[in-house]
Amino acid sequence: MKNLIFKKLLYDINVFFFITTISIASIIWIIQAVNFLDIISEDGHGIKVYFLYTIFSLPKIISKILPFIYFITLIQIITQYEKANTLMIYWINGISKMKFSNIIISISFIYFLFQLFMSTLFVPYSLDKGRSFFRSSNINLFSAIIKEKQFVDVIENLTIFSDKKNNNFLENIIIKEKINNVESQIIVAKNGEFIDQDNNKSILLKDGKIITTSENNQNIIDFENFNLNLNKFNTNTITTPKIQEMNSKNLVKCLFFLSNQIKEGENFFFPGCTLQIKDAVFAEVLKRFCLPFSIVIIGALSSMLIVLNKNDELYKRQNIFIFIITIITIFITELFIDFSTANLIRMIIYPLTLILLFIIIYFFQYYKLKKETN
């Protein structure tokens, strides 16, 4: 009987959590996807790159909202059980309130492990995978990023100006291309047309001049038709991995280098790991490996609801108080990370503080329930 009761509790928590997570994550993802539209309109990437990049950002959204959704789930299920007198079934079957609280905390540990997997493995992989589509993508929608009477420089080493634009046709064009550190060329043309044949993108320019500048030399060439290959250009979209996209193994490796092997004047250890990002690396380590433990603290705080008596006049106020305290705890555990990145000692204090907070909450609840039974 007890196993059936616990299975029902776990089932209710999982179902409500799943439905709420999918609903809220979908809303946030849609809003974020709209904000990512500049990948097409400004950076010139294709629909496929945009869609894949936004899809692979979804795990980060889920991981970010998971603690809050789990808290809402526990509040909803426990309150619902209390109002429907479902908890009486537990007490009648000899399950103490402390036992019930331990079950909630045990379930919280399961969600903690899931969040730990998300933050240390799945989220960094998905973010890096999403960024990889930029690395392997060239500019697919050149015509979309060109604006009339505007200098467009979202393409690396290339600036384009057009006085007029009609779909793929341009008039009064100025193109500046940086060839290398000492050489560049400016192309001036009366008109031009974007051409895309077999994934070979180019712009056919007519009636113009090519002005090539190299150090102190300058050459001018007139042309009637000139085909500028566009496949060689890349967007200015950031393609190098960010700290959030660094896999956890390299992140810990970077932490080790930054903490123990810094030599005077040395500021680079391996690609993506530099002395300039030391604080950000420390913060990311805490977010991935320590912050998920806040879910266990949330479980302990939420289980405090069973201590309350629904017939008490202060029941609603106490409910609200626990709700506010838990919300504050969620925010503080994240904000406190910024104060824990100065050195390794502060980093160690952060997880110890989380564990101590859990112990205080747990034994406070134990004391209250023991006092209630006496």
How would you characterize the overall build of this protein?
With 374 residues, this protein is an alpha+beta fold. It folds into two domains: 2-136 and 240-373, no CATH class; 142-229, no CATH class. The chain has twelve helices and eight strands. A six-stranded antiparallel sheet has the order 1-2-3-4-5-6. Helix 3 packs antiparallel against helix 6 (97-135) and helix 4 packs antiparallel against helix 6 (97-135). The relative contact order is 0.10. The model has no long low-confidence stretch (mean pLDDT 82).
Short key terms for the protein model shown above:
single chain, 374 residues, alpha+beta, six-stranded antiparallel sheet, two-stranded antiparallel ribbon, 12 helices, elongated
Low-pLDDT segments, ≥5 res: none
Q: Helix-strand pattern, N to C?
A: HHHHHHHEEEEEEHEEHHHH
Shape: elongated
What characterizes the major β-sheet? 6 strands, antiparallel
Radius of gyration from the alpha-carbon trace, in angstroms: 29 Å
The chain-level mean pLDDT equals 82
Total strands: the figure is 8
- Judged by helices, strands and strand pairing, the structural class is alpha+beta
Task: Supply the number of helical segments.
Answer: 12
Strands, helices and their partners?
Blueprint: H1 2-35, H2 38-41, H3 47-55, H4 58-83, H5 87-92, H6 97-135, H7 142-145, E1 152-155, E2 158-166, E3 169-178, E4 183-197, E5 200-214, E6 217-229, H8 248-260, E7 268-270, E8 273-274, H9 278-289, H10 294-302, H11 315-335, H12 344-373
Antiparallel strand pairs: 1-2, 2-3, 3-4, 4-5, 5-6, 7-8
Helix pairs in contact: 1-4, 3-6, 4-6, 4-10, 4-11, 6-10, 8-9, 10-11, 10-12
